[in-house]
UniProtKB/TrEMBL annotation:
This is C1q domain-containing protein. Keywords: Coiled coil, Secreted, Signal. PANTHER family: CEREBELLIN-RELATED, CVP18. It is found in: Secreted. It comes from Daphnia magna. InterPro entries: C1q_dom, Cerebellin_Synaptic_Org, Tumour_necrosis_fac-like_dom. It comes from the Eukaryota.
Length: 284
């Protein structure tokens, strides 16, 4: 039985709508494929750029006679271990065969730095390497704590205080016989001087100055002063942080002292110090 014209037209309209929907869907799929194709082309371009950079870096830094083909870099352990140069950046690590993103120690200008390397980025991308901080690395520990318990008294200006009890002297940088500390390596050090000075009966104020000297130059000082009708002890202390070079010599010396005032070394004088931060790069 033949369809009526009305039904026939309705079917044609529905078919056209269905075709239009399919065409729209196909056009959308084509657009997605075009975008995906563009992304893949960009990824290939970036990978090719990274490949060229790595090949160029290997050609400049590989040991003499070593292969610089990337296939060898990935599989030749001798090439990866053939240089004695310590890494100074994520670029060095990448050239050495590292590929996992993460935090790595590298050699900085003065200290060991911790950097985050994102090896998925191009080397000139700012996010390729990010400084996290500094690693507290010391080539050897240095700290001491000495005391003077001699019954001798120190009454003269420009006198080096001697110590005869070595409670702690890790690294052996403090010489109690001479009272001199010799910096074993460059870096930042902390020092503390504490003690008691005796002030006799006096109607006027008497003074006592003691200092920390580096290579015969005063770099820190402490003092005490009293005017007493009975005579009494005057405490003093000096705390300082110093930037030292290897071989610098430090000593504790009486700088200025009034008549009849004295520093009693009978167990009341302490000298303490330690290496807080080493310029470890100088030791590498």
């Amino acid at each position: 039985m033949a369809q009526s014209p009305t039904i026939f037209v309705s079917n044609i309209v529905q078919l056209k709508e269905t075709v239009d929907i399919k065409i729209a869907q196909l056009e959308f799929k084509c657009k997605q494929l075009e975008e995906k194709d563009a992304q893949l082309e960009e990824e290939i371009r970036l990978k090719d750029q990274q490949l060229k950079e790595l090949l160029s870096y290997n050609a400049r830094n590989a040991p003499e006679g070593a292969a610089t083909d990337l296939r060898a870099v990935g599989s030749n352990a001798n090439l990866r271990q053939g240089t004695t140069k310590m890494p100074t950046s994520c670029l060095d690590l990448k050239a050495a065969g590292f590929y996992l993103n993460g935090i790595y120690p590298v050699v900085g200008a003065q200290h060991i730095e911790l950097v985050h390397c994102d090896f998925s980025k191009l080397t000139f991308d700012p996010s390729f390497q990010k400084l996290i901080g500094f690693a507290d690395v010391k080539s050897a520990p240095t700290y001491f704590h000495v005391q003077s318990i001699t019954r001798d008294t120190f009454k003269q200006s420009n006198t080096t205080v001697l110590f005869n009890v070595e409670h702690l002297n890790v690294g052996g940088a403090m010489d109690v016989k001479t009272g001199i500390f010799t910096a074993p390596r460059a870096g930042k050090y902390f020092f503390s001087i504490t003690g008691l000075a005796w002030f006799p009966v006096s109607s006027y104020r008497r003074i006592f100055y003691i200092g920390l000297y580096k290579n015969s130059n005063q770099i820190a000082m402490a003092h005490a002063g009293e005017a007493s009708t009975l005579g009494q002890w005057g405490p003093f202390s000096s705390l300082s942080t110093q930037n030292l070079q290897k071989g610098d010599q430090l000593s504790v010396e009486i700088y200025r002292i009034s008549p009849d005032v004295y520093l009693n070394g009978n167990g009341f004088v302490y000298f303490t110090g330690w290496l807080m931060e080493e310029e470890v790069v100088l030791s590498l």
